[in-house]
Amino acid sequence: MQFTLEQLRLFVGVAEAGSFSAAARRLGKVQSAVSTAVANLELDLGVELFSREGHKPCLTVAGEVLLEEARAVLMRAQALEERAFGFTRQVEAELVIAVDDAIPLTAIGAALGNWQGEYPGVELRLTRLPMQEAPECLMAGTLDLALLPVQANYPRDLAFQRIGQLRMVEVARPEHPLARRQGIGFAELADHRQLVYAPHGQAISTSEYVISPQRYVCESYAALLALLGEGLGWAMVPHRLVAEALADGRLVELDLAAYPFTPWLVGVDLLWCRRRGLGRAGQALREQLARVPLGEVV
């Protein structure tokens, strides 16, 4: 059994593209080369991966199972290449990391301090990049690492590690009409103006974030919290950002019927680009950030 990683890549490519011709166009190869590679893979494995009876190839039962195995092998091979690349690459002169506005910089301060002790000469640039732009920036090379609330369907070139979670809470001023209600339903929330943090409204993988048709959209949490403090609406925000205001009574947590016993938690991911790889300083920073205790106290 002498199959190659290239054969596995073409097998996965055909499965994802839906046809040999579409896979060939996507991968920049001639169709005959793709067809031959997959046929040879079937011979090496001793099973038929695609049924070719219809207009388009369809995965067989064996093909569906082995597709996941092929993806796992390719992922491990990419990880090996990335790790080896880090040993041969020199220390970067600069690293750029995006940290979502929902994640306090104080939460990663210790990790940055530990990393600085190892690489004091490397310049570090922190940016507050809209979370929907981060994946493209990572793949384009203008960004090295990103700490973001979880998103659905990352591009295949991106790797991620779940490092914690943020507790989201619905809050308002004590005099807000919703503050006096118990067992509030989503329909009641929709009757009142919602203050929305724009990047999360566009990218967080849940339909429950933007509820009300009446809303003010803010590009920063600083602006949102200012409007919230003026009583201009209710909002869903990370608990970390309003813990002090909740404790001293400036804000109150709304009593939602949908979450009587369990908090709403949003995962936090550390992302980087597999294809580009990281040098020694970048790998060290990634390892430090991966150990940040971002588990939210609920």
From TrEMBL:
Coiled coil: none annotated. It holds the Pfam family HTH_1. This is Transcriptional regulator. GO terms for molecular function: DNA-binding transcription factor activity; transcription cis-regulatory region binding. Residues 3-60 form the HTH lysR-type domain. It comes from Bisbaumannia pacifica. The keyword Transcription applies. The keyword DNA repair does not apply. Keywords: DNA-binding, Transcription, Transcription regulation. Belongs to the LysR transcriptional regulatory family.
